[in-house]
Each structure stands twice: as structure tokens, then as C-alpha cells.
């Protein structure tokens, strides 16, 4: 089968022929229709080594998938061959920028016909990160106020929609060019980080940060008593006076994926999509100069293309 691989940290990405994946116990093999990726994942240690610290190059990047189950591993239950699914793959295993990928069944959920592959592939990491940041770690509830830094990004845009749906007051931040997009997603107000000051925001119950740096540290002063400063960028160096400071890495969560799928199906959630690339163009998608606003997605199978057999 074809896959995008990285041989080492400096050689860049290339399209190559690789072995068809093995479905281990409780795995499924998925025919990849669309795949999402995080541009910074080539800097993650798990991209290059397994859980025992052993080199696992050449490695296939990408950890978000939408596709069809083609094979069940021994003992796998809850999914069927031919079923549409979407979900997230293990950080320490070969990923989704390939024609087929082996995934733990517990990290996938059924995908409704109403949700297209590209939309679904844009959601697993961003959606679960937003869900866990707001509700698991931030404990956001109706009537509270949340400040979302980087509200036009893949994670931030989902966070704005989820927070608005739960009945929170949402303040988004970002560049001036992102103002209308963030307001269209449901934010009640927007702070232009290039020109405006955070002083006018007032106290908030939750700060959800995806940017880090000095912005994260100065945001601690905005958190009211009992609130939370939550970041996925780096551990906060400054803690709120009477609140919590949380740094976390997203975890696979089948129940959370199911909640996101329901919202995709009924239109309550719409990811902010960026450019869509063919598999052979995926190496270019990682180049910083090519990325604009929204989540980039790799389309591996065009709509209506026969499934075939990659073995």
C-alpha cells in the first residue's frame, strides 16, 4: 500500500510503498478515506520511538482517520467489516497518512452517512482536546464565562462551539483577520491580540489556551475564584490566585468521540476546515508556508472510488 513516511527528523516526508498493516488483538484495519494530522507531530518523541523507547522509523504520521473497516483483529467486538468509522490512533503506532491503518477498536466510533469523510477526519484530536479542556479539566458549565485563546484554530474553533452550546458566555481571541470567523462560530465577543488589551475582558471562569507564552501567563490574573487556567501549549508558569492551573495532553475517549459525532450529524458542530490535499501531496501540507486558517485534511479516497485491496 502507499503511505507517507518520515525516515528521520531531517530527511522530510515522502510517499512510499509500505507493508499492509497487521490487525493485532482488538484492532481493526481501516481503509482510510480521509486523514487529519497535527503539523507539529514531527517534533513529538512518540513519532520516532515506541513505548519502550526503541526506534520505529520509518514512521507514518497522522493520527485522525475517517474510513471503512476492512478487517477485524482477534477478539474485536463492537464494529463490523464495511462499517464507516472515525477516530484517533495511538501516538506510538504508525498513523493515518496511508491507504490502510490498524487502529485499536476502542478508539473508533461509527460514523453516520450524514457526515462526510473530510469533515469527520478534521475532528478527533481537535474535538477531544476541546471537549476535555473545557469540561473535564475546566469544568465549564452553563452561565459561566470562558476565554478561548486562538479561537480560529482547529481546537479553538471547536471549543467556541461546544462552550456556546453548553450555555456559557464565550470570548474568543486571535488576529484581527479572524474576528468575523470567530463571531460566526458563536463567540459573544472577540479580542484582537495584535491591538487590544486583555484588561477589558474582566474575570472569567475558564481560560482555555492553545498558544502558550506570555499570553498564557498574563491570563492567570483573569481567572476568578474557583476557576481554571487550562493549556495544551505548555504548563502555566503563573497560577491563578484562587483557582487551578492545568496542562494536559488529549487522551483517546470513545464516549467523547460519540458525543462529537452526534453534534456533527445534527449540525451543532462544524469544524473550521482548511485546505484538502491528495495523499501524494501530503508532504507539502506540513510546510509552514502552505497552511492557512482552519484544519488541513488529507483525502486518500475520492467519493465513489472503489475500496480495492491494498495487500
Description:
The protein has 311 residues and is of the alpha/beta class. Helices cover 20% and strands 28% of the residues. Strands 3, 4, 5, 6, 7, 14 and 15 form a 7-stranded mixed β-sheet that branches. Strands 10-9-8-11-12-13 form a 6-stranded parallel β-sheet. Strands 1-2 form a two-stranded antiparallel ribbon. α2 crosses α3. The radius of gyration is 20 Å and the shape is globular. The termini are close together. The model has no long low-confidence stretch (mean pLDDT 93).
Could you give a short description of this structure?
This protein has 311 residues and is α/β, with parallel strands linked by helices. It is 20% helix and 28% strand. Strand 1 and strand 2 form a beta hairpin.
Topology (elements, then pairings):
Elements: E1 2-6, E2 13-17, E3 27-36, E4 64-72, E5 84-88, E6 100-104, E7 108-110, H1 117-121, H2 124-137, E8 145-148, H3 154-166, E9 169-174, H4 179-184, E10 189-192, E11 204-209, H5 213-219, E12 223-231, E13 244-247, H6 254-265, E14 273-278, H7 282-285, E15 295-299
Parallel strand pairs: 8-9, 8-11, 9-10, 11-12, 12-13, 14-15
Antiparallel strand pairs: 1-2, 3-4, 3-6, 3-15, 4-5, 5-7
Helix pairs in contact: 2-3
Amino acid at each position: 500500500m502507499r503511505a507517507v513516511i518520515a525516515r528521520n527528523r531531517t530527511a522530510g516526508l515522502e510517499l512510499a510503498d509500505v507493508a499492509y498493516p497487521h490487525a493485532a488483538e482488538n484492532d481493526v484495519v481501516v481503509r482510510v478515506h480521509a486523514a487529519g494530522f497535527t503539523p507539529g507531530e514531527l517534533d513529538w518523541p512518540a513519532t520516532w520511538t515506541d513505548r519502550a523507547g526503541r526506534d520505529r522509523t520509518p514512521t507514518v504520521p497522522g493520527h485522525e482517520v475517517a474510513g471503512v473497516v476492512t478487517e477485524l483483529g482477534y477478539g474485536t467486538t463492537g464494529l463490523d467489516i464495511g462499517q464507516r468509522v472515525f477516530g484517533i490512533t495511538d501516538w506510538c503506532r504508525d498513523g493515518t497518512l496511508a491507504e490502510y491503518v490498524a487502529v485499536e477498536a476502542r478508539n473508533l466510533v461509527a460514523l453516520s452517512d450524514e457526515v462526510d469523510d473530510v469533515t469527520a477526519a478534521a475532528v478527533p484530536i481537535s474535538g477531544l482536546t476541546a471537549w476535555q479542556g473545557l469540561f473535564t479539566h475546566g469544568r465549564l458549565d452553563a452561565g459561566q464565562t470562558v476565554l478561548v485563546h486562538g479561537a480560529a484554530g482547529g481546537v479553538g474553533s471547536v471549543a467556541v462551539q461546544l462552550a456556546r452550546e453548553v450555555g456559557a458566555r464565550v470570548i474568543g481571541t486571535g488576529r484581527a483577520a479572524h474576528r468575523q470567523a470567530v463571531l460566526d462560530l458563536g463567540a459573544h465577543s472577540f479580542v484582537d491580540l495584535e491591538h487590544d488589551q486583555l484588561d477589558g475582558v474582566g474575570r472569567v471562569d475558564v481560560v482555555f489556551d492553545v498558544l502558550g507564552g506570555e499570553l498564557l501567563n498574563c491570563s492567570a490574573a483573569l481567572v476568578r475564584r474557583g476557576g481554571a487556567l487550562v493549556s495544551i501549549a505548555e504548563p502555566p508558569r503563573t497560577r491563578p490566585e484562587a483557582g487551578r492551573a492545568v496542562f494536559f495532553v488529549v487522551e483517546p475517549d470513545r464516549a467523547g468521540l460519540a458525543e462529537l459525532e452526534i453534534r456533527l450529524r445534527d449540525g451543532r458542530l462544524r469544524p473550521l476546515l482548511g485546505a484538502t490535499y491528495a495523499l501524494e501531496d501530503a508532504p507539502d501540507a506540513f510546510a509552514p508556508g502552505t497552511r492557512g486558517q482552519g484544519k488541513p485534511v488529507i483525502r486518500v479516497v475520492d467519493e465513489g472510488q472503489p475500496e480495492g485491496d491494498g495487500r
